[in-house]
From TrEMBL:
Binds 2 magnesium ions per tetramer. Keywords: Aminoacyl-tRNA synthetase, ATP-binding, Cytoplasm, Ligase, Magnesium, Metal-binding, Nucleotide-binding, Protein biosynthesis, RNA-binding, tRNA-binding. GO terms for molecular function: ATP binding; magnesium ion binding; phenylalanine-tRNA ligase activity; tRNA binding. Residues 40-154 form the TRNA-binding domain. Its cofactor is Mg(2+). Mg(2+) binds at D455, D461, E464, E465. It comes from Spiroplasma platyhelix PALS-1. This is Phenylalanine--tRNA ligase beta subunit. The keyword Acyltransferase does not apply. One of its GO terms (biological process) is phenylalanyl-tRNA aminoacylation. PANTHER family: PHENYLALANINE--TRNA LIGASE BETA SUBUNIT, PHENYLALANYL-TRNA SYNTHETASE BETA CHAIN AND LEUCINE-RICH REPEAT-CONTAINING PROTEIN 47.
Length: 809
């Protein structure tokens, strides 16, 4: 952000304060100063001159030999600008001058003719060429007629005798996009009085009864008819904008830009000659032409249901403010930040645009009506004759609770200081806070924060502000104490460590991934049904707007990048915390582990048959997981797990399952949908696994509490096992089937294990699914034969048909 000393001087007298002192103050206040440019010291040995005579250069028609009176003498200067005229006053860089663009002026021979100086343009004097008009870029700059020839202060007459500070604003201090609030910070620092913003008090503010849109947080409109504005001297307003790196437009556009700079609140102006029903709404369709475009759900300005402007960036020409415009409408507004950010990205708008920058930042819009009153004041200052048609508070901003309760004793504890209560109160008053209640006994303090300081929420924030006011150099230097001791590992850490070792032993690669993602893609692999994401107020870009719901998209991106380098077989995993903001959630932070197998699980070439299929399939991944579940929870735990097929756009519906224990979903196996795999250039056999370890640890803890140590003798005879598949109603779960089988008290059945739950389109249409389980039979007295096992299987089949109307496969 670029700050001009001249604009700060409207509210705080900084004329006698040196630039370096202001830079030091800004750095101390937490605003990092990147660069300081004083145009009066970076441009040396300048003088006011007047062109007396012009001759064509004898060897070039594009060059002119100018005779310039600089007071004490007349100098000959060769100039190639097309706008040189006899009688104009100009800025002359004398021999020995050094300009802001680092050009050093010397006697110079040009095509055989000596030139003794240079007539300057605005860009040569230090203004950014991007904020200059074509006319200003093409030629030299004229000085006003009252500039005395020979004056050594030509920049004063151009309003360029100024200093510019380039500073970095932290995201939490976007309130200082308003120059007034930055001046307020400096007034506290230098203990100087702060002038109030001059506005026109307009008492007849109407309140709209129109229906409100949720995405409009605040909106005020001012409509005026122009009676006569004649010739306006807008030189200072144009120069102020240029000094702050903003390109001037029409006078009324510039007026709005100045007010946005001053108060930080977004505002726009449109020609209102034919504007009868001004509204802000969401577009219901796409409209794309060269001159005007918007997309469906873009925030647009409309007139009688006709859209005419897309966030004031793309606007129909009928609503441009022109010299012949007779009516204007000014709008001061605050909109939903998420929608604005999405729209800027969708339309490829420049986010550094003055209006969009303020619309996009988390500024509390308390000034939305004050902006319009400030515009009225400036219109009067420029002697513009007008009449107010309407001043309407269209959407009243609902102020949130701006009081905070903290324990002020924590401030001393965090800073290592012994500040008195009075000193802490004084520091808080300095930043605009008001202490409503305080108690020395309890240490409790209730604070009312300024409406523009939305970054003050807890004791840490207030501690930082107190430190800033007191001065970091005045805080005691306390060396931190480190106590090194071995902390016992938690159950979560132990379980994760074992799983990671298990994966590493099988050749997986561990990776770390970024936890922010695009809000629009959150649902793609949201297998655990998270609902409300945690979002950033001011993300770096829209691709990093929200905290993710799954680790899998990041792993797939790693696989895609490796595949682009011909690494076709890859196994990667990561474990990280998934955060959510679900109001009904028990846990808002769940530790997940996820892995992806692309192409070949074992990554071993079959030398006898190179064209053989890769070793990667649903049963292999399921068995790989089952082995680890058995190791950690025992065979009974693994046998109790149920696998439920599910459908989602990103996965293969018949090769994906949610894994549950006692109906608690804690893990998912899924095959990536072949079309998506092809789109990101992966193999058609990509399997994904994601486990909620926070949930799994809780399950194991519950199992441990219920566990009773039992001893049983082992049979010395070989068991016989058979698989049984049945088709039953999809309303019947495996748990129901298992309970019925065990309740039958069969003589030889020892173990019952679910192998698969399957459902295709035909079964889904019939509202049925197929269960396949393994039955293990044995006896402690004798070796079983096929006949006795077959009898028990027939009994179980009959039981399934009677109880569940099952179809035996």
């Amino acid at each position: 952000m670029v700050v001009s000393k001249r604009i700060l001087n409207q509210w705080i007298d900084v004329r006698k304060i040196k630039d370096q002192e202001i830079a030091k103050a800004l750095n101390s206040l937490g605003f990092e100063v990147d660069k300081v440019v004083n145009l009066t010291t970076t441009n040396t040995n300048l003088i006011v001159g007047e062109i007396l005579k012009i001759e064509e250069h004898p060897k070039s028609k594009k060059l002119n030999l100018c005779y310039v009176n600089i007071g004490r003498k007349i100098v000959k200067i060769i100039c190639g600008a097309s706008n040189v005229r006899v009688g104009i006053k100009v800025v002359v860089a004398q021999v020995g001058s050094k300009l802001a663009n680092d050009l050093v002026i010397d006697h110079r021979e040009i095509l055989g003719v000596m030139s003794h100086g240079m007539i300057c343009s605005l860009s040569e004097l230090g203004l950014n060429p991007e904020v200059l008009s074509e006319e200003e870029l093409a030629g030299i700059v004229y000085l006003p007629d009252d500039a005395p020839v020979g004056s050594l202060s030509p920049l004063h007459y151009l309003e360029l005798d100024d200093s510019i500070f380039e500073i970095q604003l932290t995201l939490n201090r976007s309130d200082c996009l308003a120059m007034y609030y930055l001046a307020k910070e400096l007034s506290h620092y230098f203990k100087l009085p702060l002038k109030k913003i001059a506005v026109s008090n307009f008492s007849n503010i109407q309140t709209s009864k129109q229906s409100k849109h949720e995405f409009i947080h605040a909106l005020g409109t001012l409509k005026i008819n122009l009676l006569n504005h004649g010739q306006i001297d807008e030189s200072w307003i144009k120069r102020t904008l240029q000094l702050t790196n903003i390109k001037p437009k029409s006078f009324f556009d510039n007026l709005v830009s100045i007010v946005m700079l001053e108060l930080g609140q977004p505002a726009v102006v449109f020609a209102a000659d034919n504007l009868e029903d001004f509204k802000i709404t969401l577009a219901n369709k796409d409209y794309l032409t060269k001159s005007f475009q918007f997309f469906k759900n873009d925030i647009v300005f409309s007139n009688k249901e006709q859209y005419f402007s897309n966030l004031a960036v793309s606007t129909l020409s009928d609503y441009f403010v022109e010299p012949k415009t007779k009516a204007l409408v000014f709008a001061s507004l605050n909109l939903d930040g998420d929608l604005v950010q999405d729209q800027i990205k969708r339309n490829s708008f420049n986010p550094s645009n003055l209006f969009l920058q303020r619309l996009n930042k988390p500024i509390v819009p308390v000034n939305y009506l004050l902006v319009l009153q400030r515009i009225l004041f400036l219109l009067h200052q420029f002697h513009i004759k007008f009449e107010v048609v309407s001043f309407v508070n269209e959407v009243n901003y609902q102020l949130k609770d701006n009081s905070r309760t903290i324990n002020y004793q924590m401030i001393n504890k965090l800073l290592g200081t012994n500040l008195s209560l009075a000193e802490i109160v004084s520091a808080l008053n300095t930043i605009g806070c008001k202490v409503l209640k305080k108690s020395k006994l309890s240490g409790i303090m209730k604070i009312k924060i300024p409406s523009y300081r939305n970054d003050l929420n807890n004791v840490n924030d207030f501690t930082e502000e107190v430190a800033r006011v007191v001065g970091y150099n005045n805080l005691p230097k306390i060396k931190p104490k480190f106590v090194i001791r071995a902390e016992p590992l938690s159950n979560l850490q132990i379980l994760l460590a074992d799983m990671k070792k298990y994966l590493l032993d099988y050749g997986f690669h561990q990776v770390k991934t970024y936890n922010l993602t695009n809000k629009d893609t959150l649902a793609d692999f949201n297998f655990f049904g998270y609902k409300k994401p945690i979002t950033l107020i001011a993300p770096i870009n829209l691709a990093r707007k929200a905290m993710r719901f799954s680790l899998l998209p990041s792993l797939l991106e790693i696989c895609r990048l490796n595949a682009s380098f011909k690494q076709d077989s890859l196994k990667v995993f990561t474990d990280e915390v998934i955060y959510n903001n679900d109001p009904e959630a028990v846990e808002h932070a769940n530790h997940h582990l996820a892995f992806v197998v692309n192409n070949d699980f074992f990554d071993v070439q079959n030398y006898f048959n190179p064209n053989s299929e890769k070793s990667n399939n649903y049963l292999l991944i399921k068995g790989f997981l089952a082995a680890w579940f058995t190791k950690q929870g025992g065979k009974e735990f693994n046998d109790a797990l149920t696998y439920h097929s599910f459908d989602q756009e990103t996965i293969h519906p018949y090769l994906s399952s949610k894994i549950k224990y006692n109906n608690i979903h804690f893990a998912t196996i899924a095959a990536l949908h072949p079309e998506i795999a092809e789109r990101i250039a992966l193999s058609k056999q990509v399997f994904l696994v994601e486990i909620n370890f926070t949930e799994l640890v809780a399950i194991f803890a519950e199992l441990k509490d219920k566990q009773v140590v039992k001893y049983k003798s082992w049979s010395k005879f070989n068991p016989l096992s058979r698989d049984l598949s049945i088709i039953i109603s999809s309303n019947v779960e495996y748990e129901d089937v298992k309970n019925v089988i065990w309740a039958a008290r069969t003589k030889y059945l020892q173990n019952l294990t679910l192998i698969d739950i399957y459902s295709d389109e035909v079964l889904k249409h019939k509202k049925k699914h197929s269960l396949t389980f393994n039955l293990e039979f044995n006896s402690k007295k004798e070796q079983l034969d096929e006949d006795r096992v077959s009898q028990e299987i027939k009994m179980i089949q009959s039981l399934m048909q009677q109880r569940f109307n099952a179809e035996i496969r």
